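User: For a benchmark we're assembling, each entry needs the component sequences followed by a predicted structure for the full assembly. Here are entry 17's components. Please fill in the structure.
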Amino acid sequence: MSKIQNAFKDGKAFISFLTGGDPDLDTTEKLIYAMEKAGADLIEIGVPFSDPIAEGPVIQEANERALAAGCTTDKLFDMVAKVRKNTDIPLVYLTYINPIFTYGKEKFMKRCQECGIDGIIVPDLPYEEKGEILDICDAYGVDLITMIAPTSHERISQLAQGAKGFVYCVSSLGVTGVRTEIKTDISEMISLVKKVTDTPCAVGFGIATPEQAKKMASQSDGAIVGSAIVKIIAEHGKNSGNYVYDYVKSMKDAVREA
Amino acid sequence: MSKGRFGKYGGQYIPETLMNAVIELEEAYNKYKDDPDFKKELADLMKEYVGRPSLLYYAEKMTKDLGGAKIYLKREDLNHTGSHKINNALGQCLLAKKMGKTRVIAETGAGQHGVATATAAALLGLECEVFMGKEDTERQALNVFRMELLGAKVHAVTSGTQTLKDAVNETMREWTKRIADTHYVLGSVMGPYPFPTMVRDFQKIISEEIRSQMLEAEGKLPDAVIACVGGGSNAIGAFYDFIEDESVELIGCEAAGLGVDNPKNAATIANGTEGVFHGMKSLFCQDEYGQIAPVYSISAGLDYPGIGPEHAMLNDMKRARYVPVTDDEAVEAFEYLSRTEGIIPAIESAHAVSYAMKYAKELPKDKIVVVNISGRGDKDVAAIARYRGVEIYE
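Assistant: Structure for entry 17:
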C-alpha cells in the first residue's frame, strides 16, 4: 500500500494543489508546510509546463509565472527532496506527459522515488496510452493516478480497474477553474468506480467554496482544490502563507463535516 | 502500442474527457469513408463547389529562367477559399453533419483553415467558432473579417505566444467544455488519432490528381514533389500517393524564420526532438525539460513548433527529406513567382517555391519537379509590404 492511502485513513480527505515554483520554489516549500499544518491530507504539486491544455486561465498563468521565475523539473525535484525530509504527507505530481518524456521516463520516475513523490497525475495520458509509463511507475513505486471524466460513462469500469493511490474524478466538462455550480451526477460516477475497486475516489475541478467541498466529499472520499488556492497565491505571492493556511483550514473543516 | 501509430509516432495523448469523442469520431469516419453516398456527396462538392481538380500548370517561364528541371505548379491556390484547406474542412464538416453535430470549432494560423471551416460551416448550416492567436489576428486581419462575413465567431487567443500553437491549445480546451454537439475540425495532419489519418485522407486527392495529370501531360511520374510543411497537411496531401513510388523524391520545406541557428525559427525536423504534445508523439521544437519553444516564422501558417507524426516517420525512414527555408528566401520566392509567372503564392507556399528554385537548377532538363502551391498570396500582400518597409492600409 502506498503512502497515498494514508490521506484517506482518517475519513474524508482534503487534497490541495499548487503549481511548483509559483511565485518561487522557496514559497512553494513554505506553502506545502502551511497546507499540511492547516489539515491538508495530500498535496498535489504541478510541474510547470509551457502548454497545460487541461488547465483554465488561473493555473495556466501560474505555470507561466513559475517558468518565468526559472523553475525547472530538476529544481523542483530538489525542493521536493528537501520537503520530504520534513514531512510524511503524501505528495503527488501533476504533470503533462511531455516533461516526463523529455526528461527521460525512467530517470523521471527514479527521481520521484528518490525525492519522495508518491504518485503522478498525467492529464494528457489516457487509459489507451498509459503503457507509455505504467511499468516504469510500478518499478519505482510511483502510483499512476487514474482520471475519470463526466464523459467516461461505459469506460469507467475499465479505467478504474487496478487503480492505484486514488481515483481522480473530474467533476465537470472543460478545464480546471472555479465554477459556481457542478452539474455532473457525481454519486453515479463514484458508484460505478466502487463496483470495480476499493481505491478511494476524490473529486476535483471547479471546487472553491467550503459548501462545494463538503458536498463533493459527502459523495466521495475527498475533495481536490487547485485554482482557488492558486488564485490566493497569485494575489499574495510570497506572503500568501497565512491566507493559504486559513483557506485550506476552512476547506478541511468543511470536508470533515461531510 | 496504442492505435493510430506512424512508426513510433502518433497515438492519442489527450485528456480522458475527450476520449469518447475521438472514439466516436473514429467510428464515424470508418463508417463513412467507404460509404458510397458520403463519397459521392463529397466528390460532388469537390467538383461543383471547390472547383477540383485543381490545375497542374507547367511554369514554362520559370523553368526557362532557372535553366534546369521542368517545373509544374499544383494550383491548390485556385480552390474556392484560396487554399488546400478546403479539402479537409469540407470533408470534416460533412462528416460532422452526418454525426449529428450542429457546431464546429477550429484553430487557425494564417486564417486559411479558419476561412475554409467557416465556409464549409456556412454551406452545410453548422455553427462555427474559430480560435486564432492574437498576434495572427493582427498579421492576418483580412482573414478575420472574412471569417466573420461567413458567419463564424472568431476568438483572439491571448495565452502563451498568441500564435498557432496557442490556438490549438485553446480549441482543445473549448472542445473539452462542449463535446456533445461539437466537432473539432483540426486543420492539419496532427493531433490525436484519427485526425492525422483522416486529414491525410481528405488531402491525398492532391497527389492523386498530380499523378493522373502528370501522366497525361508527360506520360511519366514527376521526379520530385516539393511542398511546404508546418503541421504538414498540404505536404502529406501532395506526397501520399507517391510514397510507394521510390523514384519520386518527396521534399518538405520548413520555416526557418531568421535561420536554423537563430532562435527565431520554426524548423521542427532541423531542430526538434521527440516529444508528446497536442495529442501526438512526434518531433517538437522544445527545450531540455520539454517546454515547447516559442517558434517564429514570417508565415503564420508554418509558425508551429511540431510536425505531423506521418512526416516524422517519413523522415526517419528517409522516404522524404525536409529542408529549412528562411523568411528572406521565402519572400524572394514570393516576389519571384509573382513577377515571373503572374502567380502570387501564399507566403507558406513560397517556402516550397524557394527550394524548388534552388533545386531545379541542380537538376538536368529532363527531370520534372512539382511544387504544391498550397494557397494564394492575397492575404500576405500587406505583410510583405511591411517586410519591405512599405506601409499600406488593408
